[in-house]
Amino acid sequence: MDRKTIFTKTAKGLNEATGKTSVLSRDMRALLKELDGRATVADMQAKFAKLPEAKLQEALQVLAKSEFIRELAQNVKPAEPAVKPAAPTPAPAAGDIDLDFTMAIPTLSSISKIAEDAAREQAQAAAASEAAARAKAEAEARVKAAAEAAARAKAEAEAK
After folding, report:
1. How far is CA 36 from the centre of its chain?
2. Would you tell me the crossing angle of helices 53-65 and 26-34 to the nearest 10 degrees?
3. For position 115, what pLDDT does the model report?
4. 67 and 27 Cβ atoms separated by less than 8 Å
5. Is pLDDT at 42 greater than 70 in this prediction?
6. Which residue, among 77, 74, 10, 9, has the nearest Cα to 41 in the 3D structure?
């Protein structure tokens, strides 16, 4: 492991970082929470400046051996994004499957916001159809009233 190595959390690490489990010490959990799949070991050293580099390396190795984190990339140069055509990757063996949960997962608040937006749109559509029905009923009532007034006027004219 060198200073350009990037680590990401595994499913076990995500459970620990979010507090669903509490296997690690507070210091190890704080280190685990800072691993975001983008920060290099050098970045982590800068964040934890009080911690000697040897201790940080040791802590990262313990987290990796305990399968809380895994190495995402090494020697990545962020200034030069490599654009390569996507090559098909071979399917992993049944025991080698490691799920990467670093992608955004919909949260309860985002799901509830989507549901609120859908409910609001549905309410607006119902209000619009109700308003259209009311306008149609009013127009029919006006036509009927005009027809009745015309019939009454004709009846009065014939009565004279």
Report:
1. 16
2. 90
3. 83
4. no
5. yes
6. 74
